Amino acid sequence: MEGKGKGYTTTIEGLKELFEELKKDYKVIAPTLKDGVILYKEVGSFENIAFGYRNTEAPGFYSLEKAEGYFTYTHPANSPKSFLHPPELTLIKAKASQEGLVFEEVYPEDKMCLFDLRACDLWAIKILDRVFLEDPYYQRLRSNLFLVAVECTYATLTCFCKTMEKGPVPKEGYDLLITELEGRFLIRAGSKKGEELLVSLKTKREAKKEDFEEREKKIRALEEAMESFFNIREVPQKLYSRMDSSYWEPVEKRCLACTSCTQVCPTCFCFDILEKNTIDLRESERVRVWDSCFSPSFATVHRFNLRQSIHSRYRQWLMHKFAYWIDQFDTFGCVGCGRCITWCPVGIDIRQEVKRIAG
Amino acid sequence: MKVGVFKFSSCDGCQLAFFELEEELLELSRIISVEYFLEASSSNRWEHFDLAFVEGSISTKEEEERIKKIRESSKLLVAIGACAVSGGIQSARNFEDFSQVYSSVYSYKHYETNHYSKPVGDFVEVDFELRGCPINKESLKELIGAIIQGRSFQMPSYPLCLECKRKGNPCVVVAHGLSCLGPITLAGCGALCPSYKRGCYGCYGPIEKPNLEALEEGYRRLGKDERALKESLILSFNAYNKNWRGQI
Ligand code: SF4
Ligand code: SF4
Ligand code: SF4
Ligand code: SF4
Fold first, then answer.
1. Which ligand is nearest to the CA of A151?
2. What is the pLDDT of residues B20-37, one digit of tens each?
3. Long-range contact pairs involving A296-302 (C-beta distance under 8 Å, separation at least 24)
4. Is A280 within 8 Å of chain B by CB?
5. B161, A264: Cβ pair inside 8 Å?
6. The pLDDT of residue A2 is above 70
């Protein structure tokens, strides 16, 4: 889908106008700079967006430098998951009162706009939608969400959305879609909400054939430059035939079972439920926190951990992403964003493991 | 509930966590009575304890005797802090020739002390451990709450990285090339150091079965000498922890 309705071009001032409009109705989350890393955070001003920075990423490596242009980076280090499935979320509060225990369900009420979302993360949200289909907490946040997608014109060494067939071009699911051209931006709408906002913008002009042609050239150039690592159609069946430990044992020496990969992954959804109560037992909170299949307590049943070895936990993680997920949710659990590769402190590359095991 | 707080070879820092329980003090004073706590009171009684907190490592013959007496007098015994749980910073001598360590500090034989500084658990049975150097108020509160309420004690068994990520920190190893013991260190501190752009130096001690081989590989990758890793572990508070025995 190439965007519903007409396309428009605008300038950086036009994008600022758009940002200000969005801020009236939404809490705007955008890529911003924190301690030398680009992170999604709520931003108060357009100037705080990480425009003109370029991230270089490799297994276990991240750096930033200045670059010409605006949307010069790829996706931030954290993902939309941090906002739609927050790392710590209070679900229920209980209080002792004269009438007995009073329970209160606490729902997040934020109206959020994710500004500058890439194809991989757009897909990740689509996957989370299936996972949290019946979760009222997620659904509350999701139903109020406005999504501004941006087309990548640059990819890092860890990006492999092309292999996963999830990018680099965003296909659907956005309200607005921005493409950076020479000295201007092409904007198109993908929803009625987006269309309405786009039409109301003052700083714009209707896009011409040349604008679309320039866009096409830029997008195709990136797509062609990106490597294909494996054929995903063959991967699930091959993996199912390689469940035997011998395929997985080599990971035992390299993986720390530190959980980082699962935490930075935009689709890993596992959580734990904690009860936090005061010493006098008059108040209690039920809190949902991120968990991980690498955590030693994750597969512990009656004090016995069913996955004692690190390679058995690694197998669970990779098999889930590239095989079980398909049976469970009718999609891969991986969108090829490469975060798990960049942010693994020992630089384990999931693409190489898939190739090694399913190759 | 009768409570005792005891000190062995240590700096007294962990006991300070009890003084931080201000908000809970009123409620606690209804339920517990502090019978023995030298740092807090001048009137102390030693009869029977429902709950004994022990700070410090065991490093003299006198301490070996005393810890056994405390165990005999107590229903539940909790080791608090890196000294009691692992042997503390003073256990660095366990990896050296004792007479050399001794003579580098004292010019003549002055103190009677064991060659090893060992955790409480090497001498008596320990019911609960509170990690950290020092421990934090939250985990102390959680443990006391669990015991009073008769429920299980909720303590992380996972590495610090999980806590670090829940806080939203970008990894300091990847982003800044720093070394960090987070992947092999038990969570519980709230990822204090990485939140201030510093590597974790392991004050909560090792998780169960830490993967030292993988971490060494990580150090090599960062261009850091793996000996530097062993040294940073040995010179730390938790080198003699049971989860490290035989590995370093
Ligand atoms: S693959 Fe890397 S990030 Fe994931 S648990 Fe293993 S060491 Fe940690
Ligand atoms: S498995 Fe890795 S590459 Fe795939 S979506 Fe998760 S973090 Fe991204
Ligand atoms: S994985 Fe693809 S869509 Fe995501 S940032 Fe990289 S190039 Fe863009
Ligand atoms: S900074 Fe340290 S604790 Fe945090 S994720 Fe990286 S290795 Fe783990």
1. 3
2. 998 888 888 889 999 999
3. A296/A257, A296/B157, A296/B158, A296/B207, A296/B208, A297/B157, A297/B158, A298/A270
4. yes
5. no
6. no
Distance CA A293, CA A305 (A): 12
Distance from C-alpha of A272 to C-alpha of B157, rounded to nearest angstrom = 13
Q: How many beta-carbon pairs under 8 angstroms link A with B?
A: 117
Residue B190 burial (CB count, 10 A): 14
Mean pLDDT of chain A: 94
Q: Are residues B138 and B196 in the same domain?
A: no
Ligand 4 contact, A345 CB (< 6 A)? yes
Longest dimension (CA), chain A: 72
Q: Where does residue B88 fall: left (phi above 0), alpha (psi -120 to 50 degrees), or beta otherwise? A: left
Q: pTM, whole model, 2 decimals?
A: 0.94
Determine the pLDDT at residue B218: 84
pLDDT in tens, B79-126: 999 999 999 999 999 999 998 988 888 887 777 899 999 999 999 999
Say which residue, B41 or B8, is predicted with more confidence.
Answer: B8
Is the pLDDT confidence value at A4 over 90? no
The structural domain count of chain B equals: 2
Domain that holds residue B111: 2-149
Q: Is the CB of B202 under 6 A from ligand 4?
A: no
| pLDDT, position A245 | 86
Of B149, B158, B175, the CB nearest to A297: B158
Q: What residues pair up with A275 in beta bridges, in sequence order? A: A286
Cα separation, B120 vs B67, whole angstroms: 8
Sequence-ordered list of residues with C-beta below 8 angstroms from that of B236, at least 6 positions apart, any chain:
B89, B201, B202, B203
Which-ligand-closest: CA of A166? 3
Contact B67 CB / ligand 4 (< 6 Å):
no
Q: What is the pLDDT of residue B221?
A: 80
pLDDT tens for A259-272 read: 999 999 999 999 99
Report CA(A193)–ligand 3 centroid distance (Å): 25
Residue B234 lies in a domain: yes
- Whole-angstrom Cα distance, residue A17 to residue A45? 11
**CA A260 to ligand 1 center in whole angstroms:** 6
Same domain, B15 and B132: yes
In a domain? residue B78: yes
How does pLDDT run across A51-71, given as a tens digit for each residue? 999 999 999 999 999 999 999
Q: Is there a single domain that holds both residue B144 and residue B164?
A: no
Same structural domain, B238 and B145: no
Q: Using a CB-CB distance cutoff of 8 angstroms, which residues of chain A are in contact with residue B221?
A: 60, 346-347
Which residue in the set A61, A77, A295 is minimally distant from B162, CB to CB? A295
A301 at the B interface (CB within 8 A)? no
Nearest-CA residue for atom 6 of ligand 4: B171
| B59, part of any domain | yes
What distance in angstroms lies between residue A107's CA and the mean position of ligand 1's atoms?
Answer: 33
pLDDT tens column, A21-45: 999 999 999 999 999 999 999 999 9
Question: Is residue B155 one of the residues assigned to a domain?
Answer: no
Place of tokens 């009162």: A97
Does residue B196 share a domain with residue B111? no
ipTM: 0.94
Give dist(CA A152, CA A174) in Å, integer.
14
